[in-house]
Amino acid sequence: MIKDILVNLGLGPNDPAGDYAVSMAEIFEAHLLAVAVSYDPIIPGTVMGGIPPEIIEGQRRESDKKARTAMARFEQAAKRAGISSETRVINESLQGAADTIGRIGRRFDLIIVGQPDRRKSSADQVVDEGVLFESGRPVIFVPFIQKGSAKLDRIMICWDGGRAAARAVADALPLLKKAKQVEVAIISDKPSKSDEVPGADLGQHLARHGFKVDVKHITSPDIDVPSTILSHASDSSADMIVMGGYGHSRLREFVLGGATRGLLESMTVPVLMSH
Fold it and tell me: Is the residue at 103 inside a domain?
């Protein structure tokens, strides 16, 4: 059951993640907390003689203005939608924003963040995938090209039988209940044996929950997993992808696996990930 949602608001002229979160709160009749980050000034360590205080203060005021503009825009959207909502502005460094939002998100059912537009990304637009690893909660990443409200008619599950994928499926059950069609996609570099149907057990499990499930084995000889996933999602008109978020800890820093990072950089539909 989803009754408490957290969203990190985008600070640019458009905010696909904020709009998507409002529509998700409508779908689930959930409460929505919107967080806007007022980033600390970025001071390059190579600057000789330091930066004048008035410039630092100017950066701080500009960042705070962007956060409060995003918050006001969200409040108007939430009011129009008639949802239960609240807002919070937090002051944080670029490096610490994801950790802070992740810690806040631990008491929520779902976290929604936006994909930075890498064509014109600036530092104050980026809250990275650290939210996924810090929160312990499912995270929906919304592509910067997202248009319109959330749709959950067709959901595609990327399944490899691993722990992270299993966690993602369990976390996604409330969303799957809204879907008209659920597809379990298994991607490998060779066709399955005739007597072997990978993912069949998961399909049976989901069918027992009352879902209409298709299981599909996708062969990708060159194993360009992100491109294969996104291509199939487009072909099947998927509204959302569900998958495990893979990574490991290195000196307390979480490092995403290549397939996970590649998909988040190129995604064309919202992606729910769990870790």
Answer: yes
Beta strands 253-256 and 247-250, pairing class: antiparallel
Q: Are residues 163 and 132 in the same domain?
A: no
Per the CB < 8 A criterion, the answer to whether 17 and 142 are in contact is: yes
Contact between 26 and 78 under an 8 Å Cβ cutoff? The reply is no
**147 belongs to a structural domain:** no
pTM: 0.89
pLDDT in tens, the chain (275 residues): 999 999 999 988 889 999 999 999 999 999 999 999 998 887 665 555 567 777 777 888 888 999 999 999 999 999 999 999 999 999 998 778 989 999 999 999 999 999 876 666 555 445 667 888 889 999 999 999 998 899 999 999 999 888 899 999 999 999 999 999 999 999 876 665 544 556 778 999 999 999 989 999 888 766 678 888 899 999 999 999 999 886 544 433 444 556 677 788 889 999 999 98
Residue 136 is part of which domain span?
4-142
Instruction: State the Cα–Cα distance between residues 129 and 21, nearest whole angstrom.
Output: 17
